[in-house]
Amino acid sequence: MLTILKIQMHFCPGxxxxxxxxxxxxxxxxxxxxxxxxxxxxxxxxxxxxWAFDVYLDKSKIGKHTFTLSNNTLTSRAKFNVKxxxxxxxxxxxxxxxxxxxxxxxxxxxxxxxDKVNTKVKGKKTSxxxxxxxxKLTQTLPACPMxxxxxxPKILTQAKLLNPQxxxxxxxxxxxxxxxxxxxxxxxxxxxxxxLKGALKGKNKLNIELWxxxxxxxxxxxxxxxxxxxxxxxLI
Length: 236
What we know:
mainly beta; 2 helices; 15 strands; outer membrane lipoprotein receptor (LolB), chain A; 5% helix; 15-stranded antiparallel beta sheet
């Protein structure tokens, strides 16, 4: 479910700051963190049985992310494909299944393939807390963790949230910004605007902006990467 977008090119990484290179069509995008974070931080649908988002990198549509909630089990499905000069520069395929009970995550099973590299994360509530593993490291979290459940306003009060893809338990802060009117499904919508920051051991991991309508339903997201690229989720 993003903010740390690593871009690899044919040339020296020091050239990344030269925005004119983008116009020359000679770069290849390589998302190491950002798209994965945005995609995988979406985890606990509350207000709808099905939601779907078109996902954009700057102004280019790169894929779709859909969510289905049934009997307290959320299935999240995302597929992204970034092309540069008709070449597949980055591919991402993700499925997450999560079980929830009273705003607490009770079980999670995540399968992600990023540029042919597959990762799996599994977690389950136990008598000792919530045990989660990425296949290399097993952690025991508090008994009632939350993932980045944007559609549940309760996350706005959470000091820590779980990133499902890599099992990182991030320190989080939320800042309330000014209300504003944005377009949602082609209609002007009055919204509350928030900024979310996530860090691990003091190192910044993500910077996200979130919008909620006046019914506290999550309706939009934007992340600006350090390189100046913008990733957005648009409700469809």
